[in-house]
Write a structure and sequence with these properties.
The complex is a heterodimer.
Chain A (H helix, E strand, L loop, with lengths): L2 H19 L3 H23 L2 H18 L9 H27 L3 H30 L3 H12 L4 H8 L3 H27 L1
Helix pairs in contact in A: 1-2, 2-3, 3-4, 6-8, 7-8
Chain B lengths: L2 H10 L10 H23 L5 H6 L1 H24 L6 H5 L4 H17 L9 H22 L7 H23 L5 H20 L2 H5 L2
The chains are: A mainly alpha, B mainly alpha.
Chain lengths: 194, 208
């Protein structure tokens, strides 16, 4: 955006804010929305996290609302608003720094728990991988029955209608498929255990 | 709640508001209130007997003028800083440097050039400067909290500097001892201590 258009925008915002100070709801909504959209980029460039940015934007909006009586139309609106935005950003960093400082003493525990959680995640991923491998070793009909019953949590009737099987045939197929799966996973454990 | 909902809520809440007075007007209001507090203090402690004689001397006049200038410049800076802006606030925080340096030079210069530096107790002076600066500080904090300071430490530092300077100004009129060592130990040093401690209160006093 050129300097001229930025200046024009700043003047327009100043006028809107002056109207807002008189109680004009529409002008206030417009200036808040446009200001929010401009500062979003500034916060994103400093923080990088869209969730924290959204929180900070809400803090900024509350700050503008709280300090709106301090805005003088002779001043630049952008300068006034960015001063509040910087204040909120610095306050955020102070909070982050403080929370890091307080949790520094338990950093060893945190590291251990992070490692543990990473191990658990890895095990879960491996298990899911093995399960899917076993599932794909079943026949098409057996796999589809298990998927529909266990993963999609459909009823026997729904599965039987979908696969055009009798309910008892669905039951038998599911039972056999489970037995095969158990056997395959058990064999895998046995192989790894050796 | 997302920011769109918040904007809707805030704009629905928009009522006509009265704008805050300019920093200069607020500075003058604070000065008037502080002088009122000082006049109460003077009526309780009484003004020094030799005031007419002192006022004829250049040192007393210069020191009082510098302290008054320090009080006005610091409070004006604090009031400018209490409004979110980036243009004037950068320069304004340096307003009190000159009067503060002049005060330090006057006190330090007198101490170094005086040949009769005698120790004298001055607990009442230190007590008076503390009480007066805290009273004046209470007023300026109340006024600054109505605005929206964005540099909390600087605002607090300038506010306590203004309050301490006005208290030291008042003490010049009530303390009968003009010994440079007395002025240094019981006027200047407590003032510096109060300024340092007061500056640390920024986040507790002005966070919004």
């Amino acid at each position: 955006m050129s300097n001229r258009s930025a200046k024009e925008r700043d003047q327009r915002w100043g006028q809107l804010m002056a109207e807002a100070q008189k109680g004009d709801k529409v002008a206030y909504e417009q200036v808040l929305t446009e200001a929010r959209d401009l500062v979003r980029g500034f916060f994103m460039s400093k923080i990088g996290d869209p969730h924290i940015t959204e929180d900070l934007l809400q803090e900024l909006l509350l700050g503008i609302h709280q300090a709106r009586h301090t805005y003088d139309t002779k001043l630049s609106f952008s300068s006034w608003m960015f001063a509040i935005a910087r204040y909120k950003l610095n306050d955020h960093w102070r909070r982050v720094f403080r929370s890091q400082k307080y949790s520094a003493s338990s950093s060893v525990d945190r590291k251990a728990s992070e490692e543990e959680s990473a191990d658990t995640k890895l095990i879960q991923t491996e298990l899911m991988k093995e399960l899917y491998e076993a599932l794909f070793s079943l026949s098409e009909k057996q796999r589809r029955v298990l998927e529909a019953l266990r993963l999609e949590e459909k009823s026997l009737r729904e599965v039987s209608e979908e696969l055009q099987m009798t309910e008892s045939a669905v039951k038998v197929t599911a039972h056999r498929a489970q037995k095969i799966l158990k056997l395959k996973l058990k064999n895998r454990d046995g192989t790894e255990g050796r | 709640m997302n920011s769109n909902d918040l904007i809707k809520k805030l704009s629905d809440d928009a009522k006509p508001i009265s704008r805050l007075d300019s920093p200069l007007i607020r500075c003058l209001k604070w000065l008037a209130l502080s002088i009122f507090v000082i006049s109460i203090s003077w009526s309780l402690t009484s003004i020094r007997d030799d005031i007419a004689l002192q006022m004829e001397g250049a040192r007393f006049f210069l020191e009082s003028s510098v302290l008054l200038l320090l009080a006005v410049s610091s409070s004006l800076s604090a009031f400018i800083l209490s409004i979110p802006r980036t243009d004037m606030s950068r320069i304004s925080r340096y307003f009190p440097i000159l009067p503060l340096s002049l005060w330090a030079l006057l006190v330090g210069g007198a101490l170094l050039t005086s040949s009769t530096n005698q120790w004298s107790a001055g607990i009442p002076c230190a007590t008076e400067i503390s009480i007066l600066s805290l009273s004046s500080f209470g007023i300026i904090v109340w006024m600054l909290r109505k605005a929206a300071p964005t540099n909390l430490v600087a605002t607090s530092g300038l506010a306590i500097m203004a309050s301490t300077a006005i208290a030291a100004f008042a003490l010049n009129f009530s303390c009968k001892n003009s010994e440079p060592l007395h002025l240094f130990v019981w006027h200047f040093m407590p003032a510096m201590l109060i300024i340092t401690l007061g500056s640390l209160l920024g986040h507790r006093l002005f966070k919004w």
